[in-house]
Amino acid sequence: AMMYPGMQSLWARWSPPHERSRLVGFAFGGSQLGNALTFPLAGLLCAYGFDGGWPSVFYITGLVSLLWCCVYAFFARDSPGAMPSIKPIERQYIETSLGVYGQSVEEQLEQRKQEKPWKAIFTSGPVWGILLANACGNYGSYMLLTQMPSYMKEVLKFDITSNGAYSMIPYLVFWIFILIGGQIADVLITKNILSIEWTRKLCCALGMVIPGIFLVLTGYMDCHRKVEAVILLSLSMGFCGFQFSSFFINHGDIAPRYAGTIFGFTNTGASIPGILAPYIVGAITKNKTREEWLLAFYIAAGVQVLGAIIYAILAKGEVQPWAMEEMEEMPPEGVPLQEIPEHDDEEEETNGK
């Protein structure tokens, strides 16, 4: 709950706008890579782990999380200006693209202390577009995250060890599609093929409508079509990766200064359908039949399509008027690195000495 808003806020200060899709997608894609690796690891630990098997899953994942926190605390910095090892040309490139070049770290921190326009945030159409699209997307993704092992056991008849191995595949594909989606989105924006707004809307459609179609097709598979079912599930999860180049990072487009705050609001509301999804699926699949799972998949697909429609109507790609108060106007496409002369780098290093 703390990490996702914090990372949104961090990337709003570190990523040039025209590189944001692939940078944020690469960083947050690690979550899906972690999911992919945890499924087979958990299956093996349940079968062969220490302390009775399944408790070892919690010990191992908890230890890995603790080690990550130590590494992150040591290396991470709040902004480019606070990073001691950054090269002057790299800092200038990032800060110029964000419209804060020439400001000290203290000045940037002081600007962030301005009061947040809560009323404007809570009544903003683009903010609610993000929240509702995220909520609909979460219903499908949380359903798969929590119920996919059950589906593979009850319908496809996988045992616990192979269940973990096959459950890994959709999340690996998900991770790969997140990286691909980020690259495609940034190319569309950088080359002026589509505006930021329409790039986000296109990625939302790809990340919600297509997964819904593959999810419904998965519902028609049974234990005699295990390979086909895993392929369809993988494609459904994979195309969800385009969501990371859509509403997931749209906070930084419409209100970069309040990206973390808005993400906290939208992600909290969007988590509610994700909480309800396992209970809804459990109520529908009482007899654990393929027909019941097909109905659950139809509902999830319908929710995802609804989210894509809402986002297409409400989403925006430019900084909103209420988020531009006391802000310098930012270059919309960033600053190409080749336009920053090399001698600036050398001069700043000399002055620093």
UniProtKB/TrEMBL annotation:
This is Major facilitator superfamily (MFS) profile domain-containing protein. Keywords: Membrane, Transmembrane, Transmembrane helix. Residues 328-353 are annotated as: Disordered. PROSITE patterns: MFS. It is a multi-pass membrane protein. One of its GO terms (cellular component) is membrane. Residues 1-319 form the Major facilitator superfamily (MFS) profile domain. It is found in: Membrane. InterPro entries: MFS, MFS_dom, MFS_Na/Anion_cotransporter, MFS_trans_sf. GO terms for molecular function: transmembrane transporter activity. The keyword Transmembrane applies. The lineage of its organism: Eukaryota, Metazoa, Spiralia, Lophotrochozoa, Mollusca. GO terms for biological process: monoatomic anion transport. It comes from Dreissena polymorpha (Zebra mussel). Pfam families: MFS_1.
